[in-house]
Specification:
9 strands; seven-stranded mixed β-sheet; two-stranded antiparallel ribbon; single chain
Length: about 160
């Protein structure tokens, strides 16, 4: 994995990325709210769809905890908008085409698919509290478990 080593209690690295509509979004814009920041490899693939739809299906519960969901992957705004529309995702998807934010969070690393090794996003999520501190880190989290684990953390902080 690349990037700095983050731990619970660290200040979440700030960033500015474009959303699915091309608007700039800063993590610091959400200060005062909790943030579920999740990284996923690619729009509209089976695991990524499972994870995104899990966050969609728990979105009301998450927002009731004064939280928002932000999804990050390398795809562009057009791909994100298509994915968001297809699955009726109620949260923001951000484009990290040069994987700079993924590197800041230590989730850009070697992956393997069908025996082939390549660099990419390691599926993960971070729960960030109202003050911008990391409350939970889940690296290599399963697509199915990610939304449930994030909500469990939100229930505890």
């Amino acid at each position: 994995m690349t990037g700095q080593t983050l731990h619970v209690g660290s200040t979440a690295p700030n960033f500015t990325l474009a959303d699915e509509n091309g608007h700039k979004v800063k993590l610091s814009d959400f200060r005062g709210k909790r943030v579920v920041l999740y990284f996923y490899p690619k729009d509209d693939t089976p695991g990524c769809t499972t994870q995104a739809c899990g966050f969609r299906d728990r979105y009301v519960d998450i927002t009731e905890k004064n939280a928002v969901v932000l999804g990050i992957s390398p795809q562009d705004a057009k791909s994100h908008l298509k994915f968001k529309t297809k699955y009726n995702l109620p949260f923001i998807l951000l484009s990290d085409p040069d994987h700079a934010v993924a590197e800041k969070y230590g989730v850009w690393g070697e992956r393997s698919l069908y025996g082939k090794k390549f660099m990419g996003i390691v599926r993960s999520h971070f729960v960030i509290d109202e003050n911008g501190k990391i409350a939970d880190i889940q690296i290599k989290v399963s697509p199915k478990d990610s939304p449930t684990r994030a909500l469990e953390t939100l229930n505890q902080i």
